[in-house]
Amino acid sequence: MAVVGTGLIGTSVGLAVSRHGVTVHLVDRDETAARTAAALGAGVLDAPRGPVDLAVLAVPPSQLGPVLAEQQLRGLARAYTDVASVKSAPERHVLAGLADASSYVGGHPLAGREKSGPLAARAGLFEDRSWVLTPSEATSRETLNRALEMISLCGAVPVLMGSREHDAAVALTSHVPHVLASLMAARLQHAPREASRLAGQGLRDVTRIAAGDARLWGDILRSNAAAVAGVLREVQADLADVLAALTELSAAPADGGAPGLDGVVGLLDRGIAGMSAIQGRGGAPAAGPVRLRVALGDRPGELARLLASLADLGVGADDVTPRSSGGTGLDVELAVAALTAEDVRRRLVRDGFASADPADGPAQQRAAAGGVLTGATP
Amino acid sequence: MAVVGTGLIGTSVGLAVSRHGVTVHLVDRDETAARTAAALGAGVLDAPRGPVDLAVLAVPPSQLGPVLAEQQLRGLARAYTDVASVKSAPERHVLAGLADASSYVGGHPLAGREKSGPLAARAGLFEDRSWVLTPSEATSRETLNRALEMISLCGAVPVLMGSREHDAAVALTSHVPHVLASLMAARLQHAPREASRLAGQGLRDVTRIAAGDARLWGDILRSNAAAVAGVLREVQADLADVLAALTELSAAPADGGAPGLDGVVGLLDRGIAGMSAIQGRGGAPAAGPVRLRVALGDRPGELARLLASLADLGVGADDVTPRSSGGTGLDVELAVAALTAEDVRRRLVRDGFASADPADGPAQQRAAAGGVLTGATP
């Protein structure tokens, strides 16, 4: 194999693949970078005697076209892939006949760090991460299979997509988030000293990715400028709306109505909906939980005692819904996985909790220690 | 003590203070919430017999003024503080004579979770977090001391600030980040299914706080609308600039120049500068490290061997700067804490690494195992 470009990604590929005994030839215009990668164990510096099976071009997106054409002319490898986070532009280059199209498949590993350069590389960087491949119509099956094998050696999960589809997706999930993180971080540049004492995890999370290499990210945004601008224009429209709403609110008297509040809350609600749209996908639907209702009475700390009693059975505060008991005490409803429901029931009886399930007879309801608890599957 | 409002923050205060044996009286219009807090061990539900030492009003910002006036009329406590994340508006209420100003000090613990309600509460929520107090000119020293004691029982770090100064700071460090996270998350609402496979840690970090309670956050943004709008207008101007630059770039031919690239990279650079502005503050300047230069030669994996050799001495990849050796090998410079430099030197000698320090004589330079390494403090 060959790796052209021994920065963070290229060196990590070299480290990951070398673990499996594959010889990796390292190429970089920056000799110190190549030597550093070799010294880390990512591969060897001498040129291969003949074409290698696969060359991974880990160069900035704007250099990809020329480097691919150059290495194909030299006959470095039988197949080529790249790691650039934008895919339509290189594909256009290839398909325009600048290079042999059958031996190239676009690639993009969804992995990275804020740090760059070979010293930031890790053999495990790609483990369990998605690695997109964007085969064109011209890409040969042999080329695709070589790239798939390399991805598998890196421990990543291959995802096949069209290049335009990929670029629209990363504009949304990676490039626009980066711009927004930078927009926020730029506001901190002249922040008063006191503000830094109030900086919490929220701000750190929102801005974290803004620490990335500005040249590299400028290059990425340039290569995907149209798709990024499209999403940012929608952000711009939302921002204008929320600013108008806030301006209205700031002009309103404190104890009057709240004109504009709906506009602000509406955006926040859409944000919450958007998060569940990416979080809720892909997982198998969970089996409906069994619901157990427990009468806690009004002794302080009873809910804490209940949670402590059930902690080792995997029941936590998230599984508890408080219900009014009608009387002076508190009832809670526990949502328990069907598989552990019987264990939970036994534990509750053992620890003296009483069922508040209306399906239970009066003997069980609000019974003292030893009462029988029943649950209903909705 | 009394806690009015047994949501996430109020219940957590109750749990934290109760640990120290202080009796906490819990008050909430929502009886189930109050019972839940009591059942968790945050305090008791019966009313205090006389005024308590301190009442913490943990109600939404828009209700703070009325609740404070009401509880002062009832004589619930000798001193009052609140936990609202906006401070000028309540202070205006108090100073306008709606309530006794000497017994009130504004407060804001810099702690929270995406979850809300008493069940999300934790006794350790405030540990080592900043807790701002914004005493007005009217605030009595006795009131301030009671609030300081409560903060100390919660394990938090008190920070005294003016209320306007506080509101400007949180607009920047908390409220605007929230709006930007929501703006990003709102874009995901109608994202194509494939995009979710590409969602990585960066996107999750940028949007994480957007999951917060929309009503509560609407209330917070409303209370600080002017300051938030001020910062957002600056964001809007930057966004317009970066959009113009991206539009220019997307219209430019692929192999032509890159008009607009400077505008994009300029924003990214300002973002990086902004991050270092909040990260670099507060810490004591580290003692200058000792620099050791090691000649690694050109055997593959030598740098990995060096890092493995020094790992238990706390030297990692971050402390390594590759240097060209002039020859075919690689030199690296190690930045080592002055205190451990001697240990590092001994280890390097033991494991057969050679000094590349020009200050060393030819006998030491590029010597085999046993060579003496020297370092220079810059």
Textual characterization of the structure:
- Chain A is α/β, with parallel strands linked by helices and 378 residues long.
- In chain A, 45% of the residues lie in helices and 13% in strands.
- The first copy, chain A, has helices at 8-18, 31-40, 61-74, 88-98, 141-153, 163-187, 193-197, 201-207, 214-223, 225-251, 261-279, 302-310, 341-350, and strands at residues 2-4, 25-27, 55-57, 80-82, 104-109, 130-134, 157-160, 290-297, 320-324, 330-336, 354-355, 375-376.
- In chain A, the strands form 2 sheets. Chain A has a 7-stranded mixed beta sheet with strand order 2-1-3-4-5-6-7, sandwiched between helices.
- In chain A, α5 (141-153) links the parallel β6 and β7.
- In chain A, α3 packs parallel to α4, α6 packs across α10 and α10 (225-251) runs antiparallel to α11.
- The radius of gyration of chain A is 29 Å and the shape is extended.
- The two termini of chain A are 57 Å apart.
- The model of chain A is unreliable at 281-286 and 361-378 (pLDDT under 50).
- Chains A and B meet through α2, α4, α6, α7 and α8 of A and α2, α4, α6, α7 and α8 of B.
Brief overview:
The first copy, chain A, has 378 residues and is an alpha/beta fold. Chain A has helices at residues 8-18, 31-40, 61-74, 88-98, 141-153, 163-187, 193-197, 201-207, 214-223, 225-251, 261-279, 302-310, 341-350, and strands spanning 2-4, 25-27, 55-57, 80-82, 104-109, 130-134, 157-160, 290-297, 320-324, 330-336, 354-355, 375-376.
